[in-house]
Amino acid sequence: MIHQISVAEFTGLPDVPLADVRTPAEFAHGHVPAAFNLPLFDNEERVKVGTAYKQQSREEAILLGFDLTGNKWSGFIKDALKVCPQKKVAVHCWRGGMRSGAMAWALNLYGFEVYVIKGGYKNFRRWVLQQFENQYQLCVLGGMTGSGKTKILHQLKTMGGQVIDLEDLAQHQGSSYGTLGKLIQPTQEQFENNLAMQLSALNKSRPIWVEDESLTIGQRVIPNPFWQQMRNAVLINLKIVTEKRIANLVEEYGNLEPGFLIECTERIRKRLGPLQTQQAVAAILENRMADFIRLVLVYYDKTYRNGLGKRLAENVFPFETSTENAADNAQQLMNFMPVKEASAKTVS
After folding, report:
1. 93 classed as catalytic
2. Which of 118, 201, 287, 327 is the 20 to 30 A CA-CA neighbour of 297?
3. Per-residue model confidence as pLDDT tens digits over 105-147
4. What is the CATH number of domain 2-129?
């Protein structure tokens, strides 16, 4: 049986795999999180069919499509069975048209229960953008670089708090050194897709914790409606002594490849200053990592203070901690009453 369902209805289906029948190139550019690629056409075949549709007719494009896929159908079914042994699957293409229709027909003929996403991936993208327009009860965890914000967020999640880890979604730590020499960022479209899916799974009436970020994380951009909510939300400003922050950053960045660190330092030369850049590079080459961190923190601390100064003072709550234990700090934050009170004001 074939069912036509909306994107919202699909998000409520438990444990139904989603087959994206678009080309590998389309899938790589952006796809529904957790979907698997079951391409009806490869990249070159899709171009041929599209050209036939535009230059000849819809009927000619359909005939060409059948010619190109003639001996592939058993392979499609076998590939689907590997992912969906229970023979229940959702499918979509770009607009919910011929490609998803053809795949749904074949799978249904074999005995699958098939759910076709109405409007396809194009409709999913509309749904994604809508998630950023929704109102959320955000609590922003701030603090200067090296304050251990990410570790505390992870502890909050372990304790049952609702957390969105933007840096994990962006695969970037948010500074010039943010790739750590190994992280590969998703496309902007995929970053948005992943963020939207996580947001849709959360309870909007409960606080949602995020880390304080600039508009961009590496080369990825936080969707503006959501970022504006972050800027207007409650911010808990962690107060950690400088030497402890330096120790945290040495632990995180100290073992990275010197060439990578130097390249990233040169990237911020204009903002860091020529003398400080020269001194930072020398510290890297001489393996004086604490000195290197101390030099670049001058720039990052200044940037953070500038951003903090642009927030409404009544929404900023200093949070001083005497412990280095992330779990203890997370528990204290959960009990931090100004968060709840100010969050209620933000939402009302």
Report:
1. yes
2. 327
3. 999 999 999 999 999 999 999 999 999 999 999 999 999 999 9
4. 3.40.250.10
